[in-house]
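Here we describe the complex-level prediction in full. Unlike the single-chain runs in Section 2.1, the two entities below were treated as one system.
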Amino acid sequence: MTIKTEEFLLNLGPQHPSTHGVFRIVLTLDGETVVKAVPVPGYLHRGIEKIAESRTYTQVIPYTDRLDYLAGMLMNWGYVIAVEKLMGVEVPERAEYIRVIVGELARIASHLVATGAYAADIGGLTGFIYTFRDREEIMDLFEMISGARLTPSYMRIGGVAYDIPEGFIEKCRKFLDDFPKAIEEYNGLITGNEIFQARTKNVAILPAEKAIDMSLSGPVLRASGVNYDLRKARPYSVYDRFEFEVPMGAKGDCFDRYYVRILEMEQSAKIIRQALDQLPEGPIKGKVPKVIKPPRGEAYAEIESSKGIMGTYVVSDGSTQPYRVHFRRPSFVNLGYLDEMLKGWKIADVIAILGSIDIVLGEVDA
Amino acid sequence: MAKGLIKGLGITLNRFFKPKVTVQYPEERLPLPDRFYGRPEFYYDKCIACNMCVNACPNRVIKLETETVDKKKVVTKYDFDQQYCLFCGLCQEACPKDAIKFSKDFELTRYHRPDIKIEFVKPEMVERKKAEIKKAAAEKAAAEAAKAREQEEQNPAAGKEGS
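The structure predicted for the assembly as a whole is:
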């Protein structure tokens, strides 16, 4: 006797905590196995690129905070670096160092969320609480330097908004001193956990060639063993002055994607330490006219954000407002391979695979 | 076999005996840094009605209206529609006189929607300011008149001596 089976559709999300926001995947299931997955983004679309067209160049900065809201500093940076390229502004050294410090802190904060949320996705909520405890320290540092925790709007075209306040460096150093112990805790609590490993090792292996073909970037790409980090490959800002390694995974499974982030946090801490040691004195803002009016033309600049390569394309028509702004959002591009990654895995693995890509919906939908 | 699991449990058990990192919020509060962006504050007397903050705001939150009294601008309206505020601080940065500043008050919830909008300028403040300007103008005029009279008193004498 044969049992009659048929495929059925299941909506994962948009309101589901494991989608890390409002993200919907239409799954075609054969029993518990995924046959087809269609991602449906757009539930958090606010039209930031369009809004930017009716704002002055400086006024776009607060909106970039709201792209990847887990690393607002890096989003600020990705935007201002493009406008600076368009205008040919030189950024003072001190400002570049401050940018590196806050940028790497933002990277750690973002990876802490990714790590903790991934642990929670797999079923260990304790890990989530532990990473958020340490992320709070970074949020306090951001609040000190920029006045806001998640939406700092700290960078300005040609530099940064304010100088480092009193007590910031000491507090930052204290955080860096405590950080290795915290990483040890995560490794003991999450990485070393047998259940966690069983759920993630050899799940959704992403071959290096495929990752390159789909132009994936960030930890997702590096976990597949591709050595490509913009900070090393094409150093921008002052990254060529620091010593750090680009951590890579060997296999490209979910575990590698998770573990690369932990290793990256260690490297970021190393960079911040060096930047604090080398921090020069001087101005924090370059020579920028009060009314920012870039010449006619266009510019594209990229930075390595916490999720991957964040690029900004700015077109100027010579007025005070950008003619067009486009953001290359790594979370969105990294999702391109989701369908093939999910195919053939069980529904419980869908959460594990999606979590390992580490998406932020503010960035996916823009 | 389950070594990793036991190690994890050890970590949580260890943490259990360490001091708490959370605070009991409404009673206990963490200190806020000076740069914190909370509820905006407006200093009426410092404002010179230059419109810099209005133009700096990305979301057009601020409405500023003025009236000219004796060639001087008087701010008659300074509405801050807080629900659209991004708390980016660009207005504070643009202000040349520090007339708008963000305070450390972050408890911004209200029971009624109209209460969200802050109308900083009260009618009596405008009246006071207008009266001040008028008084100053009158005093100035009186002083000038007195000066002119004094000169006139001296001048005829000077004129007589001269002739």
